[in-house]
Amino acid sequence: MIQFHDFSFSYKKEIAVLDKINYSFKKGEITFLKGKSGVGKSTLIYSICGIIPEVIKGEYKGKVYVDDWVIGEIPLSNLSQKIGLMIQAPELQLAFPIVEQELAFSLENFCLKPSQIKRKISEVTKQFGIENLLKEKTNNLSFGQKKMVNFAALVIQSPDYFLLDEPFSGLSLNLKKKFAEIIVTLAEYENKGFIIVSHEEVKIPT
Asked: Given CA atoms 96, 102, 104, 108 in this order, what sign does their dihedral have?
């Protein structure tokens, strides 16, 4: 469970973007955060994944828990075992020149055998319908394809919680449906938690 206990945050000495937040997000739930720009949606998810306060500094009060871990006391490298973050700009999240390398990277860090890595990549590319992109250069992908590869790279790591910042923005209707179907499947059958920042109404199939 992700829990906010009397959590407040402000950038520098500005008015608090988030003020005395008390809320819980559970595994298996899909939660949408909606609102105008600047109301603190992205700030909230950055507070969960540890970017705040480790990378982005400000006035930080209260506690944020991910299960029994306290944010700010756990290294970011450890948090990645439980939290998967997808940012708005997909090109900034792609780290490798080839799609297959992008998908394999985290699995190699987990010290999986080559046969296990190959199997997991095969499973996730089939799930996402991107088998034909494996050998493609990431900088040649379309905007929507880049988002699909980023999401697949998170899913293959199998974190407990996914933080998705505007995942549906700029996608075709078909890709929006595919994203939604995968989110629902992971929440219902693998008990994954989702916190989704979105400006638009997206119908999640049930």
From this structure: positive
